[in-house]
Write a structure and sequence with these properties.
Helix content of chain A: 55-70%
Largest sheet of chain A: 5 strands, mixed
Largest interface: A-B, 35 and 28 residues
Radius of gyration of chain A: 28 Å
Shape of chain A: elongated
Strand content of chain B: 35-45%
Structural class of chain B: alpha+beta
Distance between the termini of chain A: 29 Å
CATH topology of the largest domain in chain B: ATP Synthase, domain 1
Order of helices and strands of chain A: HEHEHEHEEHHEH
Order of helices and strands of chain B: EEEEEEEEHH
CATH class of the largest domain in chain A: Alpha Beta
Number of domains of chain A: 2
Oligomer: heterodimer
Number of helices of chain A: 7
Radius of gyration of chain B: 17 Å
Chain lengths: 306, 140
């Protein structure tokens, strides 16, 4: 009886875990939908900026802005790592941290001194374990990063870059390509290239949209009046574009985190289901063998009395 | 002059769209828009010529009939074309939510900032003009 009871206990435990993982999956799904909505809403801004840059580019010619200046021999760079505050998100944090570690080793072999900044408790714990101390840590970013929260960070980076405290800014985060694909990448955000200023986003979906907007805007260019003039507006757009790009990495990371968690929890729920089945089978067998054993004992006892 | 592309039809209503990095905040048909351009206010009625303008800190006003909506605009850009006014700004706050005392303290801290380099001075000037604009809207 002892064995069968132990199995029942274990099955109950698995059932409880399944309840939890199932709930987490549902929560992650809801959060993912919200995060994706936010990311899509945020695209309107990037698209408009790209449109403006295209309109201005035709008139303005070359742009020069300190943020666009490529520094030939970077000595100091900053790596911002975006991880999640909570675990149980499958390979999400692991992938980002692996990409970040690779970037760090690469920079070290190139002789660049890298300072790191981390968002998310998971990344902070990881770096501590590796014996690195990040320059700054952020834990306020959950599933809904606000522009108001990201902007001060962006301003700080712009200041650091302009003052020459850093020559390069990289961000390690999970890029959201589509609902089925997210990849951990390290992107260089500073210095920016002129192409990046007007770039909407790289993914296929957006490329299609850009194509559509291009085709609808064919024909003669709109005769704009510029206040004050095209070049100086374009110069003002550069820092704005950087801020939006940084904001987008946070949004992407938030969406990807929820997807990873959703997928991981779905897997866990399925595994729990399988485990419950296996345990039930085991329990039935144990119970049957116990009954058989008892029957044998009774028959044996009756036979002995005869 | 190629006036063919410029809409001269003034009977049309304007459309005003305010976009922030987070979302499209405002998308409505209006009769008149006043924008805080970098060097002063810019009023737009239907049939305006296409313009791309840099915005300063200040008040965005839209009018439909007798209802006027006011927002604080935190810099950015405006694009006017085909009777659509698109305002790109990092922040747009409804004027009712701008608090006077908070703006006053912001102005005080901005003025108290020490600025030694050119960069810092430019930042200080920006902070002051932003705080002043906030204050103006709050005391309206």
């Amino acid at each position: 009886m002892a064995k069968a009871r132990a199995i029942v206990k274990r099955r109950k435990a698995v059932q409880n875990i399944k309840k939890i993982t199932r709930t987490m999956e549902l929560i992650a799904t809801a959060k993912f939908k919200k995060a994706l909505d936010r990311a899509t809403e945020a695209e309107a801004y990037t698209r408009k900026i790209a449109e403006l840059v295209a309109d201005l580019g035709a008139t303005a010619g070359d742009v020069s802005h300190p943020l666009l200046q490529d520094r030939p021999e970077p000595k100091k760079s900053l790596l911002l790592v975006l991880t999640s505050n909570r675990g149980l998100a499958g390979g999400y944090n692991g992938n980002v941290l692996r990409a970040a570690t690779r970037a760090l080793t690469d920079a070290n072999t190139d002789g660049i001194s890298v300072s790191t900044e981390v968002a998310g408790r998971r990344g902070i714990v990881f770096l501590k374990y590796r014996g690195l101390t990040p320059d700054a840590t952020y834990t306020q970013f959950e599933d809904k990063p606000q522009f108001d929260e990201v902007e001060p960070i962006a301003d700080k980076y712009i200041g650091m870059f302009l003052r020459g405290e850093i020559d390069r800014l990289d961000v390690a985060y999970t890029r959201f390509i589509n609902a089925a694909r997210q990849t951990a990448v390290v992107d260089t955000l500073l210095p920016m290239s002129v192409a990046q200023v007007g770039q909407v986003v790289e993914s296929v979906r957006h490329a299609k949209q850009a194509e559509m907007s291009k085709s609808t805007r064919k024909g003669e260019p709109v005769p704009y009046e510029f206040l004050p003039d095209a070049a100086s507006i374009l110069e003002e757009i550069v820092p704005v574009s950087f801020k939006v790009r940084l904001f987008k990495t946070f949004l992407d990371a938030a969406v990807s985190e929820q997807i990873s968690r959703m997928v991981a929890m779905r897997g866990a729920t399925e595994n729990a289901d399988e485990m419950i089945k296996a345990l039930s089978r085991l329990y039935n067998r144990a119970r049957q063998s116990q009954i058989t054993g008892e029957l044998a004992e009774i028959i044996g006892g009756a036979a002995a009395l005869e | 002059m190629s006036t063919g592309t410029i809409s001269t039809d003034t009977s049309h209503q304007l459309k005003c769209v305010v976009v922030t990095p987070e979302k499209t905040l405002f998308d409505e048909a209006v009769e008149f828009v006043a924008l805080p351009a970098f060097d002063g206010e810019l009023g737009i009625c239907p049939g305006h010529t296409p313009v791309i303008a840099r915005l300063g800190y200040g008040e965005l006003r839209t009018r439909v009939g007798a209802t006027i909506k006011r927002y604080f605009i935190d810099g950015g850009f405006a694009q006017i074309r085909d009777n659509v006014v698109t305002v790109l700004t990092s922040r747009a706050i409804p004027a009712a939510l701008v608090s006077g005392p908070a703006a006053a303290t912001e102005l005080a801290t901005a003025q108290a900032r020490t600025a030694k380099t050119d960069l810092e001075q430019a930042e200080k000037a920006k902070a002051i003009s932003r705080a002043r604009a906030l204050f103006r809207i709050a005391s309206h």
